[in-house]
Amino acid sequence: MKKKSHRTIPFAYKLLVGFILFGVMFVASMVFGAADITFKDVWLSLFTQTTGDSISIIQEIRLPREVAAVFVGAALAISGAMMQGMTRNPLADPGLLGLTAGANAALALTIAFFPSVNYFGIMISCFIGAAIGALMVLGISTMQKGGSSPMRIVLAGAAVSAFLFAIAEGIGIYFKVSKDVSMWTAGGLIGTSWAQLQVVIPFIIIGILISIVLSRQLTILSLNEETSIGLGQKTARLKVILFVNITLLAGAAVALAGNMAFIGLMVPHVVRAIVGTDYRYIIPMSGILGAAFMLFADTLGRTINAPFETPVAAIVAMLGLPFFLLIVRKGGKAFS
Question: What pLDDT is attached to residue 331?
């Protein structure tokens, strides 16, 4: 009976708790850091026309950075949830399946051969690279008889990601653009500007809206192929749309923050433990908790060794690797 009552908690209450957690993390990300900022400074910078050093730090440095963290975390978490549902693979993640490595390799090529390209061009190259990386992984994993399996996809993803990262490093060394490439591939939000956000955020918002619209079809597809076809779904077309949308979200996130593995793996697993297996609930909750987690990781990176910064990608990896190993050990059902 207790288990039943636990599962009947309305989704609206769970969503409200998620928003509260997100709000707390956003305010904390504004306050904590190398510079001394107060809650009053945050309030004045957001809701008044007051000027001052602290206000300038918030408006020109911290606020665009944390807005970027919100959208990057949401994009990676939602794309990870969609990948897990589409492939029915509990280990699916944009970072593990070649999307981020492909985007990084394409970015390195763009910087080397088109050094004067604008930010929009960099983002488009990330989209193309993410799609190529994912297609390589899926193609290799299905070459043998029996089709792809979760472990085969992960192994193919590891091999392809290593290959694409090596290409990015090689291009950086050969064309002497390692510093520029590393600024992206290290994974971080340092120097994020409002101009960059104006280019990337619309794509992420479009991707999130598409994810919400397709969440019901994704729930059916996540059951099994036969059920989807029996209910009249055009699974091939749906998978193409989902794949393009996942590429859109992951490519935009990489263009803004570089390589971020494990967020798309961890967050959907935690969300399924909270809201169940219906993607109408998983998608929005993944977006909220993904944003909150990215805010937490970025704030931690700015504070644990202030005034120096710890790369946020390293923090995410330290948290994500044990989680990944736990899921592998439990056969993908540790939090489901």
Answer: 65
Contacts by 193-199, CB closer than 8 A, 24 or more apart: 193/64, 194/64, 195/119, 196/64, 196/68, 196/119, 196/256, 197/64, 197/67, 197/68, 197/71, 197/256, 199/119, 199/120, 199/123
Number of domains in the chain: 1
Token pair for 258: 């570089």
In the prediction, which pLDDT does 64 show?
94
pTM over the 0.90 mark: no
CATH number of the domain encompassing residue 226: 1.10.3470.10
- Report yes or no on 6 lying in a domain: no
**pLDDT score at 3:** 45
Domain membership flag for residue 3? no
Segments forming the whole domain that contains residue 127: 11-329
Using 50 as the pLDDT threshold, list the residues of the chain that sit under it: 1-6
Measured from the Cβ of residue 73, the count of other Cβ atoms closer than 10 Å reads: 32
* pLDDT score recorded for residue 76: 94
CA distances from 191 to 6, 291, 303 (A): 44, 19, 17
Specify the pLDDT at position 326: 82
Domain presence at residue 305: yes
Q: Which residue has the tokens 């978490």?
A: 77
Task: Answer whether residue 335 is part of any domain.
Answer: no
- Interhelix angle 263-275/312-329, nearest 10 degrees: 60
- HSE on the CB side for 298, CA within 13 Å? 34
